[in-house]
């Protein structure tokens, strides 16, 4: 792996198929609009005699079954809530199925609100585990400043090792317990990422990586693949001297 963009290109080759089992035209069109900006083929299937809202099935590029989820779960995914991780940790919500269902599925047009919701899912997991490495790329110093209260708390939480990466200079005091890596003019100015290595349990590993292709519009993926997360952690540590 020679760049963050190279990893996105690798995922781009793993196109998936979304089979939608429903007889509700409104639901079908809603899902088609949602996934027209993803690296996904949407195919419609009738429910026949089944009396239920419907469900969806994901298949990989080779047609292999990857998972299934009820329509209600997908509708919840369309408008994810945004809360800080310590609030999420106090609820019984487990959104892993929602975010993990389409892991390593490229999205081609995500807005900042959607990016923030996905980031919160990963930060929530790091908060719950309380150990391991949490690496976050903010593109610009102003973005870190807007999340300063979140990372002030992360820096003193459990045994987490926290580092933030910026594509420009950080001139404010560094949050306690947080390493700030700033490199003006580098690739960091084009990417938003949140990476958690899972601590002592690789099953908790997860990451989001996206490139801002146009102002406020992101292209990338998220993953729960511990090997892929490890590759991203290694790249960041060796490229930007974070150890």
Rg (C-alpha, Å): 18 Å
Q: Specify the overall morphology.
A: elongated
Strand order of the largest sheet: 5-11-10-9-6-7-8
- Quickly give the structural class: alpha/beta
Order of H and E elements: HEHEEEHHHEHEHHEEEEEH
Number of strands: 11
Describe the structure.
InterPro entries: DICT_dom, Uncharacterised_Vng0742h. This is DICT domain-containing protein. This protein has one domain (4-240): Endonuclease, Chain A (2-Layer Sandwich). It is 35% helix and 29% strand. It contains 9 helices and 11 strands. It has helices at residues 4-12, 25-35, 71-78, 85-88, 96-101, 112-129, 141-146, 148-155, 226-239; strands at 16-21, 40-45, 55-59, 65-70, 107-110, 131-139, 159-166, 178-182, 191-196, 206-214, 217-223. Strands 5-11-10-9-6-7-8 form a 7-stranded mixed β-sheet, with helices on both faces. It has a 4-stranded mixed β-sheet with strand order 2-1-3-4. The model has no long low-confidence stretch (mean pLDDT 83).
Comma- or semicolon-separated keywords:
single chain; 243 residues; alpha/beta; 7-stranded mixed β-sheet; 11 strands; elongated
């Amino acid at each position: 792996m020679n760049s963050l963009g190279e990893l996105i290109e690798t995922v781009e080759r793993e196109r998936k198929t979304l089979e939608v089992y429903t007889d509700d035209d409104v639901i079908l069109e809603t899902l088609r609009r949602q996934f027209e900006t993803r690296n996904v083929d949407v195919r419609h299937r009738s429910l026949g005699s089944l009396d239920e809202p419907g469900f969806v099935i994901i298949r990989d590029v080779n047609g292999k079954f990857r998972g299934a989820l009820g329509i209600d779960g997908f509708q919840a995914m369309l408008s994810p809530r945004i809360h800080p991780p310590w609030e999420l940790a106090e609820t019984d919500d487990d959104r892993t199925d929602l975010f993990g269902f389409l892991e390593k599925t490229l999205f081609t047009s995500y807005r900042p609100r959607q990016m923030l919701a996905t980031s919160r899912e990963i930060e929530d997991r790091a908060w719950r585990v309380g150990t391991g490495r949490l690496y976050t790329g903010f593109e610009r110093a102003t973005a870190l400043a807007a999340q300063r209260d979140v990372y002030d708390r992360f820096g003193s939480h459990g045994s987490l090792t926290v580092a933030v990466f910026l594509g420009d200079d950080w001139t404010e005091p560094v949050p306690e317990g947080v390493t700030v890596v700033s490199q003006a003019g580098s690739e960091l100015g084009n990417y938003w990422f949140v990476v958690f290595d899972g601590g002592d349990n690789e099953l908790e590993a997860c990451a989001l990586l996206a490139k801002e292709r146009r102002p406020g519009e992101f292209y990338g993926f998220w993953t729960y693949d511990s090997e892929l997360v490890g590759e991203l952690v290694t790249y960041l540590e060796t490229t930007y001297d974070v150890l």
